[in-house]
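To the team - MRU complex, inputs and output below.
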Amino acid sequence: MPVPHESPLSERDYSAVELCLDDAELLVMDQRELPEREVYLRLHTLAEAHDAIRDMAVRGAPAIGVTAAYAMALAARAAPAAPDNFLVEMSKAAMRLNASRPTAVNLSWATARLLAAAREVMSHTQEARAAHLAEVARELHRADVRANRRLGALGAATLEDGMTVLTHCNAGALATGGYGTALGVIRAAASQGKRLQVIAAETRPYLQGARLTAWELQRDDIPVRVVCDSAVASLLARGLIHAAVVGADRVAANGDVANKVGTYSHACALAHHGRPLLVAAPWSTVDLGCPSGAAIPIEERAREELATLGERQLLPHGVGVLNPSFDVTPAALVHALVTERGVASPVTAQALAELAHAPEGVGGS
Ligand code: MRU
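Output:
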């Protein structure tokens, strides 16, 4: 598998984001070009990293968290020497990054960690501050890969040999620090010798399922077929889907899950047909400060995403759209939430509160 440079942090788990060249350059795979071309953006400033997140060159909740952490490290290099001014600049950088995509909580989770690290070293030299923030960002990246491998193994235990598993959007290596969450579960099951068939819902309008999930699984030799989103209910009715595993952008304290728009429709259809929906997410996606799905900000994206396909206009001129990029699946429709801290099933406020106290990488309910 080609990698951006010789020793990616996630090693064989594939990383679409890497900090290199003496911490001065952020390499980001431009996912808008997949599956046709594998090209990398070379980013050097906070503004460039912000735009790469906003414009979805890099996407997926944990991946934008990792990118934002590295962007904070780039910002530290350019920040003023005086400690107070340094902190003001770093706070502004965090706020700017947080606004780039509002739904995925991993973004503000990551910038808060880098801001806390900046506070600790505010009176150090500029070089020492920048080096410290780069190392904190790298550790956050490594921790995400570790979390994915751990939750992947926990989730894999729930999948049986011979199953056909639905996934939506892309919650793979491309969407994380490496390995993936939903695709981490599928990868882990496949590596245990379970023969899975994957059905990737294409994920209108941005087509992350068709372009990215299919690309990733094909590279891993995991059998995958793409279906249009609206085919899922009828495939369930025909008994052709046995379970679903998806990622998340934010899990509220009561277990409601925000994920790519379309997840809720699949959840309703899965529940109707008595098939389980697993949500796989690192703990950095759980927002215990958010009481329920109703409080999760849902990003509205531009008309063009829905109204155009390449050069082609799909809608009559002047017709408006609604383009919510995410939806909220009520906790009651989620069979299990799989995190690196353990598995919550049923998904309740109490189960999440218990996992909050579990040591990282252990626990469960
Ligand atoms: O708009 P995107 O592509 O950033 O949306 C991504 C998703 O909804 C993913 O399912 C989610 O971020 C989990 S990624 C591990």
